[in-house]
Amino acid sequence: MRKRIFTIVVLTAVALLMNIDTVNAQSAQEELYEKRFSLYRKTEAVTQVPWYMLAAIDQYERNTQKDSDGNIVSIAVPDELWYGAGNLMKLNENEAISLFQGKGKDGNGDGKANPGCPEDVLFTVANMLLEEGHSEEDFKIALWKYYRRDLSVQTISNTARVFKKFQRLDLNDRAFPVSTKYNYSYRSTWGDKRGFGGRRIHEGTDIFAGYGVPVISSTYGVVELKGWNRFGGWRVGIRDIHNIYHYYAHLQSFTDIKIGQIVKPGDILGTVGSTGYGPPGTSGKFPPHLHYGMYKDNGTREWSFDPYPFLRKWERMEKSN
Ligand SMILES: [Zn+2]
Fold this sequence. Notes:
Helices cover 39% and strands 20% of the residues. By secondary structure, it is α+β, with helices and mostly antiparallel strands. α1 (2-47) crosses α5 (118-130) and α2 (51-64) crosses α7 (150-166).
């Protein structure tokens, strides 16, 4: 008996400690968001570059780097650009950098441009954007000159629009991509071999449900693609602010969504169907299901990863609400 009570006490204590840990981790994350937000706003006040542009560039760089989650600001301006070509000693006094025609700027007024100082980095990036002008189009040109990649420019511009619309950085809610009010089933099938259209692997998870069951946006993001494809039938692609592309295929119908539209978790995109494996309109060659794929982009290439563990997590999150 005593042993049992002891076990219960220990288990309760462990549970409490774990809870405190989660709460601590959450508040540390919130603190980080607040710090970032106030730095973006401060730079906006000085340069007139909107905070959400700076937030989107920072977010993009954080997503394309490894292990930078805990940094306040993740933007890494290459040394040669920051200090100026020929400034091999990396002299960071304002006069030295301007002598070598570096882009590095002093944002916190200490007379030095330090690439490790978040205020200096944001001030520098804002000034690089302003080199092309003040409009959103001008910023796109500046981004293209910096990244030299259309997808990077598009992703940053779209992420900025999402931040602007929701006016906050913590956009971490998620939804299960098929309405959980209906019957559905799925299992882990990522990587399975597929016959149709030559040798391919299955780049997603199939969620089986009846015709007409709502297909739902799992994340915040922007519609990047909508239309027919021989394999996917009627499909929608949404890129989220973590630079992950979510692919929804074999839809029976679309709701009134357009390319470029901003979505949030829970928004209805269309309905489950069995379209695909032929010319536009082909349907019924397999049982109705949503094919859900996830692709990560690291700034140079894009690859498919297994959505199954995420689906399980989002399903649990929905059921606990
Ligand atoms: Zn599939």
